[in-house]
Amino acid sequence: MNYKAPKGTFDIFGKKAKIYEKIENVSKKIMNLYGFSQIRTPIFEDAGLFVRSLGETSDVVQKEMYLFKDKGDRLLALRPEGTAPVIRAIIENKLAQNSPIKLFYTGQMFRYERPQAGRFRQFYQFGAEIVGTHDPISDFEIIDSSIKILKELGVEYELHLNSVGCMDCRNVYKEVLLTFLKNHENELCENCKTRMYKNPLRVLDCKEDQCKLITSAAPKITDYLCDGCKIHFEKLQSYLKKFKIEYILDPRLVRGLDYYTKTAFEALNFSLGSQNAVLGGGRYDGLAEELGGKNLPGVGFASGIERLVTILERLDKTYEKEHKFMVIPVTENEFDFALEFLAQLRNFVCSLFPYDYKNLKSSMKLASKLDCDYVVLIGQDEIKNNMISLKNLENGQQKSFSKDEFLNIISNERCNFGL
Fold it and tell me: Taking CA 102 as the corner, what is the angle to CA 97 and CA 107, rounded to the nearest 5 degrees?
């Protein structure tokens, strides 16, 4: 039987793996500059963690979670998102004693979705959280750091911003919105006819064209913010304007998870079609209490790495390539010297050796096949004079160096050999 990767999953290797690595490295670099430290949470959690945090009416809980019982009859879920596990870890490990705390994470998430462009059943996500402060500067830092990642990667984006208020002003708005939706109930999709009575905000997040058209005329939540939420939102906008971060106020933006309060934002890239959000996030001031902890306000973002990979592949983005060398003995008599030099070279650059050595010709073919940039040739003359011969596989030029001279060039992170 020939086994294949499960539907909605795929293997990552070659050039695609390099793009994943680039995205993760840039993200970690930016997070370190902003004072975040890394956290790694389990790949599965108690299913109740996500039911409580995401909300029973969310699509994730109703349709998309991977659920299973272990041998102790405990109901577990593969994590569908990263924020709730981070908050659970903060509560369980008492990490908030030195709050505010700034954490970032990266890893695999799982949702039982219909696979399509930009959506997979197993996907990689990068995210960050600031927990323990109400200060709108923390909202600004989350937005600022996240879009810096996009800028450094060369990904174009359009920043959309909204406030979904606190529980008090949101409940007032829900009643106003429900009244509006009842007047258009027959025009809504079947899902929204149910959603509107459980959580009318969900209708604003519907992707059906007819529902989008109807809700375009719906009352704006920002018109119903209480004084505290209004001041918070105005301060956040003042910071964004001060640092010349352009954004679009989007009253339809409510995000897809129930735990958001006040700030909600998304960065969109329109080369992706309907799945155009490359990152998003917001504030979740009541989440820690909902999960059994004390009052710990928080704000964060998450980015689906696959969508960024797709964009960078379409842009044919090329990143600085690491040079790859193969050390090739001319005959088997030079193996010992070649292996010794290989060990020295590996202190500085990616270096290979021709396994299953037959002869020089077959080794040269292998070097080309493995996409090496250069081969280091070692024969009896090279050993006698403590030299190496370097060949550029792209243009065929060849040049000799003393071994010490060559290692000095490599150790100074220069690969300019005049070839």
Answer: 120
